[in-house]
């Protein structure tokens, strides 16, 4: 047993040495594109309808607030990653800062939230594909898209990075074109076929439902940035670890700019009251222009966005499963990888969890999106809390190291981020469906804690 323990420590030491040497495949811009691919999905192209309905034009403030908080969280994660590279990323830092139980909770929270995100993206994919093929059951499309997603992950890290980068370019181009379209309308270069009502973001009531409306919408808005943790998980594959802050800054500046400008023009082109959660707000905004094949075009865009997010989430949560396995917090078989570096059994366990989640989605089709978005969002940003808490506690350990990277504003920025996150979670109590999603997430957290108490507390 002692020899086995020694061997395990030697292997882990070698893995950490490889991480520190920077033996990865990805460049910083590829990591930024992977981040965009994992973040910009159906949650933005479709889910923003929920935010607009709840908060009206004030969601623009919400996106600026969420972008600032995301930057704070990433800066904290980047500091820990550059100074102490760990394949387990945020869950390893949580374990170092607060002990084994918190590291266990963090990893399994991330995995469960990823399962929920993937199921919501697959349901969105299936629903939008059924637009062209209405007679084919949704479950058929779900199987097809899930199989394609797992197939891409089986190709390995290098191919995954190339495919996700391509999807990210498509998403960026779509938002840039839409912003350009809105700008031409603003300048009078183009005009709609039908008269567009502009009594919305610019001249209407900015807080139609008061501050309470914005407060309750924050969970959906923050969910739009939820995939930021994939940057930490994937950073072990970065060629030069010192480029992590650069990758994050580029990502967040691009996202906040694209999100806020595109939503501003959505509400400039159409009265926000006309936006309905059953349709993408971008389609609603452009409908007055009678653009040929608009529905099909945006269907393709939303499908590519949702598929890319699903693939990126699958990649990151599978890597977290491997990290949990290496630390003894999951079955040891999950860490075994093939010659492409793919942990097949970790993918298999994820496939089982995804199947259960998708099954639940079809049982409760009317309200499942809000339930899933809220519960996944709560667990995601609870991990943000742990990242900031870990940063506050571990930051002093980097002070004596040479050539360290330090995030600016410590510890005030981290505490500000914690306040904003707690404000966001508390807002979920104000809305009935969000409240149900919050209860689901708390129930899942209780299950994780119970599993730790039963199986690992005495190890």
How would you portray this structure in words?
The protein has 459 residues and is mainly α. 71% of the residues lie in helices and 0% in strands. Helix 4 (48-55) packs antiparallel against helix 10 (210-223). Its main location: membrane.
Set out the fold topology.
Blueprint: H1 2-21, H2 28-39, H3 42-45, H4 48-55, H5 59-83, H6 90-98, H7 100-129, H8 138-153, H9 157-186, H10 210-223, H11 229-234, H12 244-269, H13 281-286, H14 294-326, H15 344-363, H16 368-394, H17 412-427, H18 432-455
Helix pairs in contact: 2-9, 2-12, 2-14, 4-10, 5-10, 5-12, 5-16, 5-17, 6-7, 6-16, 7-8, 7-14, 7-15, 7-16, 7-18, 8-14, 8-15, 9-12, 9-14, 10-16, 10-17, 16-17, 16-18
By CATH, the topology is Amino acid/polyamine transporter I
Percent range for β-strand residues = under 5%
Helix fraction? over 70%
- Largest sheet properties: none
What's the quaternary structure here?
single chain
Give the overall shape, derived from the CA principal axes. globular
Name of the CATH class: Mainly Alpha
How many angstroms separate the termini?
A: 15 Å
Specify the structural class: mainly alpha
What low-confidence regions span 5 or more consecutive residues with pLDDT below 50? 1-22, 196-203
CATH superfamily annotation: Amino acid/polyamine transporter I
Instruction: List the domain count as a whole number.
Output: 1
Structural Rg: 22 Å
Number of helices: 18
Q: Strand tally, please?
A: 0
CATH architecture: Up-down Bundle
H/E series: HHHHHHHHHHHHHHHHHH
Mean pLDDT score, rounded?
79
Keywords: Amino-acid transport, Membrane, Transmembrane, Transmembrane helix, Transport
Domain Amino acid permease/ SLC12A: 31-435
Pfam family, one: AA_permease
Protein name: Amino acid permease
């Amino acid at each position: 047993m002692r020899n086995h323990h020694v061997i395990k420590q030697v292997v882990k030491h070698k893995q950490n040495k490889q991480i520190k040497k920077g033996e990865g495949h990805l460049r910083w811009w590829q990591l930024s594109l992977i981040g965009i691919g994992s973040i910009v999905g159906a949650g933005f192209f479709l889910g923003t309808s929920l935010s607009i309905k709840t908060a009206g034009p004030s969601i623009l403030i919400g996106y600026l607030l969420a972008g600032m908080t995301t930057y704070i969280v990433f800066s904290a994660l980047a500091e820990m990653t550059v100074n102490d590279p760990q394949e387990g990323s945020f869950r390893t830092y949580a374990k170092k800062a607060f002990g084994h139980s918190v590291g266990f909770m963090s990893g399994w929270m991330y995995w469960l939230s990823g399962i929920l995100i993937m199921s919501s993206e697959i349901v969105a994919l299936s629903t939008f594909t059924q637009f062209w093929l209405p007679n084919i059951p949704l479950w058929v499309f779900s199987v097809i898209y899930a199989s394609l997603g797992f197939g891409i992950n089986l190709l390995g890290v290098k191919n995954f990075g190339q495919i996700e980068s391509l999807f990210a370019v498509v998403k960026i181009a779509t938002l840039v074109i839409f912003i350009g379209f809105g700008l031409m309308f603003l300048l009078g270069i183009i005009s709609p076929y039908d008269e567009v009502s502009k009594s919305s973001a610019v001249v209407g009531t900015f807080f139609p439902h008061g501050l309470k409306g914005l407060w309750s919408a924050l969970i959906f808005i923050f969910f739009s940035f939820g995939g930021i943790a994939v940057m930490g998980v994937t950073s072990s594959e970065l060629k030069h670890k010192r480029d992590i802050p650069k990758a994050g800054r580029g990502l967040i500046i691009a996202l906040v700019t694209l999100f806020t400008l595109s939503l501003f023009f959505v509400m400039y082109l159409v009265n926000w009251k006309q936006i309905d959660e059953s349709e993408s707000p971008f389609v609603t905004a452009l409908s007055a222009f009678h653009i040929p094949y608009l529905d099909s075009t945006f269907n393709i865009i939303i499908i590519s966005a949702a598929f890319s997010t699903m693939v990126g989430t699958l990649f990151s949560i599978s890597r977290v499963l491997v990290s949990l396995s290496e630390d003894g917090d999951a079955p040891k078989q999950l860490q075994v990888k093939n010659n492409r570096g793919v942990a097949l059994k970790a993918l298999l366990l994820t496939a089982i969890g995804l199947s259960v989640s998708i099954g639940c989605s079809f049982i409760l089709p009317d309200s499942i999106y809000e339930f899933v978005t809220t519960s996944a969002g709560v667990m995601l940003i609870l991990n943000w809390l742990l990242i900031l808490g870990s940063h506050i506690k571990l930051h002093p350990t980097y002070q004596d190291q040479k050539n360290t990277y330090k995030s600016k504003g410590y510890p005030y920025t981290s505490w500000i981020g914690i306040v904003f996150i707690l404000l966001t979670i508390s807002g979920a109590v104000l809305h009935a469906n969000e409240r149900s999603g919050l209860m689901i997430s708390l129930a899942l957290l209780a299950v994780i804690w119970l599993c730790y108490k039963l199986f690992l507390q005495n190890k």
